[in-house]
Amino acid sequence: MALSNWTTYLGRSTKLLRDSSVKILRMEGADAPSRAPLTLFRMNSQQDIDQFATGCDADIGGTSSVHLELDTSPERNKGSESPATGRFWGEMRLQVKPELQGRIRGGYAGFRSKPRPTLFGEMVDDVSNHQFLALRLRLGGDPRMRNSYFVNLQTDGPITTDLWQHRLYFQRNDGGWEDVFIPFENFILTNTGELVQHQIEMMRERIRTVGISLLGGNSGVSGSYDLGIDSIRAVNEEDVTRPPGK
């Protein structure tokens, strides 16, 4: 294990031990659960970006491209309240390599948080006391892509291919930053891209990974995509902000 990875591993282990100790000392569970906003991930430094993995159809013979980078552009970050944010961008293409036509499907790209192992087991997030997933985002790229973004949550359940999914609905069309709020209860359970017939309740006490995917193949659209990401949080009704007139 590289030194930087080992340092991160020990840091997560120390944080998990510290948080668990604080809960015991504070006797959390006896008091009312906290409704304060919970930050799951930020994308304001290279270390933040390194917590995520990317993938696209090119991994299996498609022709799309994917990048997840730290964006320090003052123009794109205007209104984000951060000097640097994450930028998920690339080209969405529906074509695949000639020898694979009819055998695979192109038109997808995405990123997700990496699993977080520690000395005491894998680190997960408990959002059971929160009602909404809140994402601060900036939509750019080809306007045809705006309805093809999805949020994906993976819980620490027995079926590793299960994903809880919800489409991202944007209010702005001017390239500005906005907050998108999704009720956790509105996520649907999918498996390998297909809707699971028998829906169950999400195990919100153990959120393992969070990600965003672009599924151009589902809607038959191609072109450049560009999504800015500042933060991903869990919040409650009192923290939900809505644009004027909504």
TrEMBL record:
It is found in: Mitochondrion. It comes from the Eukaryota. Keywords: Chaperone, Mitochondrion. Pfam families: CIA30. InterPro entries: Galactose-bd-like_sf, NADH-UbQ_OxRdtase-assoc_prot30, NDUFAF1. PANTHER family: COMPLEX I INTERMEDIATE-ASSOCIATED PROTEIN 30, COMPLEX I INTERMEDIATE-ASSOCIATED PROTEIN 30, MITOCHONDRIAL. Belongs to the CIA30 family. This is NADH:ubiquinone oxidoreductase intermediate-associated protein 30 domain-containing protein. It comes from Rhizopogon vesiculosus.
